[in-house]
């Protein structure tokens, strides 16, 4: 069945922006540093398969996701590039990952023991070892823990192809904690190199680290937010080495326009009352699409101008105060550029008191994604 789009609302992803951001980063990296494109959580809401393809086309050499499900989806879409699952996967599913040629992240000695008992695979399982140098999330923290892990590592059954860590503060101006994490990484890496005597892909940098070039980046960077044209933090936006190009726009249309009298109220709870005769537009998207209730009082673009969302955001609709009457079907831009004005995820995140990553991830599947510039012409 061909999918039909009835609703006048869509997310547009410009894949040429994804390619451009990869090219811009590449130009600043040492030639031997590869780019692993991070496409977890449906490519930060942008669409994992399409973004992965564009990133690989632009020169990324591998992909990273959080879940085994996400990795399998990429494989089943015909993507053959190396894929790393960065989250914890239960040992009973390791053989499935192996069959799909997917690399797992492993960091527990007990995981290895379970794997040896459960696995029927004759092929060595590819893994990257994760070191927790200060993020406090997953990974090996202590030298003794690492020695225990390496003691249980049967290299006839497990193929360690990489080692990595993740930074907690790389997007902040102050680099003390970042440097503390580097100082914990280096000695642990040396211990691994003593017992795993083969080529390792070592990667420590996320977008913030790769944009800042804080340190020697080893063999690859894990490039997530920056690939989508979004800055890891305000600090990095202000201190960017090059301009990122945002890939995502969210556009819809006015579905209704009316004139209301002074004192008349708008939406649940009557939180908004017109002060004078006002033109109020209705927009057919709401929190069921990821436009959370906290967007109330924020702005959208109509006729190239900013206009405020008034009254509570509903599940499927919300209202905007217009500066004049507009025809039904007039374009409303929530995210992106319209005329000379633009509203990007950083500004929205500030209004919502969160980060751009979260706003992008929360845009739901009810909004159809349209892909622009799927084929590279640049
Ligand atoms: C999500 C994630 C990344 C990507 O981070 P960005 O800030 O989006 O570049 C890199 N590494 C790990 C371990 C992650 O979980």
Automatic annotation (TrEMBL):
Chain positions found as N6-(pyridoxal phosphate)lysine: 40
Pfam families tied to this protein: Ala_racemase_C, Ala_racemase_N
Catalytic activity: L-alanine = D-alanine
Catalytic residues in the record: 40, 268
EC number: 5.1.1.1
Broad class of enzyme this protein falls into: isomerase
Keywords per UniProt: Isomerase, Pyridoxal phosphate
Gene Ontology molecular functions: alanine racemase activity; pyridoxal phosphate binding
This protein's GO CC annotations: cytosol
The Alanine racemase C-terminal domain, residue ranges: 247-372
GO BP term (any one): D-alanine biosynthetic process
SMART domains per UniProt: Ala_racemase_C
Binding-site positions, substrate: 137, 315
Cofactor: pyridoxal 5'-phosphate
Gene3D superfamilies: Alanine racemase, Lyase, Ornithine Decarboxylase, Chain A, domain 1
Pathway assigned to this chain's UniProt record: Amino-acid biosynthesis; D-alanine biosynthesis; D-alanine from L-alanine: step 1/1
Record bears the keyword Flavoprotein: no
Membership in a protein family: Belongs to the alanine racemase family.
Function: Catalyzes the interconversion of L-alanine and D-alanine. May also act on other amino acids.
NCBIfam families linked to this entry: alr (TIGR00492)
Stated name of the protein: Alanine racemase
């Amino acid at each position: 069945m061909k999918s039909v789009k009835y609703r006048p609302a869509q997310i547009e992803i410009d894949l040429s922006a994804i390619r451009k951001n990869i090219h811009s980063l590449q130009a600043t990296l040492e030639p031997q540093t590869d780019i692993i494109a991070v496409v977890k959580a449906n490519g930060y809401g942008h669409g994992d398969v399409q973004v992965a393809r564009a990133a690989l086309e632009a020169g990324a050499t591998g992909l990273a996701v959080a879940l085994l499900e996400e990795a399998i989806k990429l494989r089943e879409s015909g993507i053959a590039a190396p894929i790393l699952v960065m989250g914890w996967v239960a040992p009973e599913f390791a053989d499935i990952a192996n069959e799909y040629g997917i690399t797992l992240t492993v960091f527990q000695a007990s995981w290895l023991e379970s794997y040896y008992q459960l696995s029927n695979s004759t092929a060595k399982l590819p893994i990257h070892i994760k070191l927790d140098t200060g993020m406090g999330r997953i990974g090996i923290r202590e030298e003794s823990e690492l020695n225990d892990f390496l003691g249980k590592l049967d290299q006839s059954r497990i193929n360690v192809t990489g080692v990595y860590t993740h930074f907690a503060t790389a997007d902040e101006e102050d680099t003390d904690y970042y440097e503390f994490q580097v100082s914990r990484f280096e000695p642990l890496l040396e211990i691994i190199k003593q017992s795993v005597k083969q080529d390792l892909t070592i990667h420590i940098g996320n977008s913030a680290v790769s944009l800042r070039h804080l340190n020697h980046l080893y063999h690859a960077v894990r490039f997530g937010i920056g690939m989508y044209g979004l800055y890891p933090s305000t600090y990095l936006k202000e201190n960017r080495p090059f301009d990122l190009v945002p890939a995502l726009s969210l556009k819809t249309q006015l579905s209704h326009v009316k004139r209301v009298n002074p004192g008349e109220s708008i939406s649940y709870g009557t939180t908004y009352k017109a002060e004078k005769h006002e033109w109020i537009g209705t927009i057919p998207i709401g929190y069921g699409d990821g436009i959370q209730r906290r967007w109330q009082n924020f702005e959208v673009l109509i006729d190239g101008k900013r206009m405020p969302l008034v009254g509570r955001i509903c599940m499927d609709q919300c209202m905007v105060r217009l500066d004049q009457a507009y025809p039904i079907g007039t374009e409303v831009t929530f995210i992106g550029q319209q005329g000379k004005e633009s509203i990007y995820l950083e500004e929205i995140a500030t209004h919502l008191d969160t980060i751009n990553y979260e706003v992008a991830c929360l845009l739901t599947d009810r909004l159809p994604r349209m892909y622009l510039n799927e084929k590279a012409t640049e």
